[in-house]
Amino acid sequence: MKTKKKGKKYIYILFGIYMMALILVIVLKFPTKLGIQSIKMWLSGGEIIRLNPQLKPMKTIITYIHYTQAWYDWFFKNLMCNIIMFLPYGILVPLMDSEKKRGMLFVVLSGALLSLFIEILQWVTAFGHFDVDDIILNTLGIAIGYGIYRVVSAILLSRKLSRKK
């Protein structure tokens, strides 16, 4: 029983590190200096330039797919990063709450709300651009992460049951 509690403690720590990294990368644009430059401009009373939010679903995604020539294009990387950065959320949230057996709906909706919060934060702070397609891609990443969690859980449960026989 102690081993289970210790393992859960590490999952919570890992989730905390993941959330900090997510904020650093998405909002503060780490490792680039865009976030630092924006903060300096903001603190010095400089003009904040806020782009209009992109609210039309699939507009950016379709545009980026159209302009993608190869997997190493910036357009393709941007799409994939929006998915990949949220995969851990779909895996870690159910691991943190395994006793309550939170389902896919809870995990995906809570992750979509997190993504919406981040997009609003980017728009309000002018550290980024609000784009509804980012929320769509982030939510897709969460759903894929949850699918990975379910597949790995089923495999581990199957192995555990076969060892008992």
Summed up, what is this model?
Helix 1 packs antiparallel against helix 5 and helix 3 (59-67) packs across helix 4. 73% of the residues lie in helices and 0% in strands.
Note down, in words, how this protein is organized.
With 165 residues, this protein is mainly alpha-helical. The chain contains 7 helices and no strands. The two termini are 23 Å apart. 21% of the residues are buried.
Strand content: under 5%
Q: Please bin the fraction of helical residues.
A: over 70%
Q: Kindly report the average pLDDT value.
A: 89
Main β-sheet: number of strands, strand sense, barrel status? none
* Poorly predicted residue ranges: none
Query: Structural class, from helix and strand content?
Result: mainly alpha
Radius of gyration: 19 Å
Gap between N and C termini: 23 Å
In terms of quaternary structure, the protein is: single chain
Mass-distribution shape:
globular
Number of helices: 7
Secondary-structure element order, N to C: HHHHHHH
How many E-type strands? 0
